[in-house]
Write a structure and sequence with these properties.
Order of helices and strands of chain A: EEEEEEEEEEE
Strand content of chain B: over 45%
Radius of gyration of chain B: 14 Å
Number of helices of chain A: 0
Oligomer: heterodimer
Structural class of chain A: mainly beta
Number of helices of chain B: 0
Helix content of chain B: under 10%
Order of helices and strands of chain B: EEEEEEEEEEE
Radius of gyration of chain A: 13 Å
Largest interface: A-B, 22 and 27 residues
C-alpha cells in the first residue's frame, strides 16, 4: 500500500513563529487532506488539497503531486495551534492512509 | 449539518466482554468509514461502507470485529470477547461520493475511546 511519511515528528514553537510541516507519499494520489487533532482527539479538517495551493487564515498548504509531497505552513503560531497534524492520502477513492503525524507544541 | 456523531464517547469494559459502538454520519453522506487509533500513531483503516454495502475490510479486522450499516444510515462496530490490545480510539468518518462528486472529503466524528481492563 501507499506509504506516508511526515516530518518533523515533533515541533516546539514560540508563539508568533512560523513553521513548515512536510508530508511525503510513495504513490500518486487523488485525495490528500490535512487534519489537526485537538487534545480531545477530534480530527478537524484543515485542507482538501490533492494538488495546488490553498490558504485559510494563518494556515496554507501546497501539494506538488508530481513530486509526491505536500507542505503545511503555519504562520504567526498561537497556542491554540498546538496538537497533532496529520496528512492523509488515498489513490483509490476509498480508505485513507495516514502518516504518523507531527506533534506541535506552541509555547507562550 | 450536525456533523458525524459517535456514541459513546468513552467505554470501559473488562476483558472478554462484548462492546458495540455507534456512528451517525452526516445526513447526505453515502460513505462511512471506521478507523482505529492507538496512542502516538495515526488512525488505521478498519472498514468502509457505501450505502449499506461493506466494500472493504482491513486485515486488522479480526473475526472478533464486525461492522454493519443496515439501512445505509448509521453504522455499528461490535467487538466480541474484548482483549487489552483492543484499547484504542475508534474513529468514524463519512463522505459523499458519486458521479458528480469526485472529492471524497472525509469528515470525522469525535471518536469512542475504549479501555479494556
Amino acid at each position: 500500500g501507499i506509504q506516508v511519511e511526515q516530518s518533523p515528528p515533533d515541533l516546539i514553537l514560540q508563539e508568533g513563529a512560523n513553521s513548515t510541516l512536510r508530508c511525503n507519499f510513495s504513490d500518486s494520489v487523488n485525495n490528500l487532506q490535512w487534519f489537526h487533532q485537538n487534545p480531545w482527539g477530534q480530527l478537524i479538517n484543515l485542507f482538501y488539497i490533492p494538488s495546488g495551493t490553498k490558504q485559510n487564515g494563518r494556515l496554507s498548504a501546497t501539494t506538488v503531486a508530481t513530486e509526491r509531497y505536500s507542505l503545511l505552513y503555519i504562520s504567526s503560531s498561537q497556542t491554540t495551534d498546538s496538537g497533532v497534524y496529520f496528512c492523509a492520502v488515498t489513490h483509490s477513492w476509498g480508505k485513507f492512509q495516514f502518516g504518523a503525524g507531527t506533534q506541535v507544541v506552541v509555547t507562550p | 449539518d450536525t456533523g458525524v456523531s459517535q456514541d459513546p464517547r468513552h467505554k470501559i469494559t473488562k476483558r472478554g466482554q462484548n462492546v458495540t459502538f455507534r456512528c451517525d454520519p452526516i445526513s447526505e453522506h453515502n460513505r462511512l468509514y471506521w478507523y482505529r487509533q492507538t496512542l502516538g500513531q495515526g488512525p488505521e483503516f478498519l472498514t468502509y461502507f457505501q450505502n449499506e454495502a461493506q466494500l472493504e475490510k482491513s486485515r486488522l479486522l479480526s473475526d472478533r470485529f464486525s461492522a454493519e450499516r443496515p439501512k445505509g444510515s448509521f453504522s455499528t462496530l461490535e467487538i466480541q470477547r474484548t482483549e487489552q490490545g483492543d484499547s484504542a480510539m475508534y474513529l468514524c468518518a463519512s463522505s459523499r461520493m458519486g458521479p458528480r462528486v469526485a472529492k471524497n472529503i472525509q469528515y470525522f466524528g469525535a471518536g469512542t475511546r475504549l479501555s479494556v481492563l
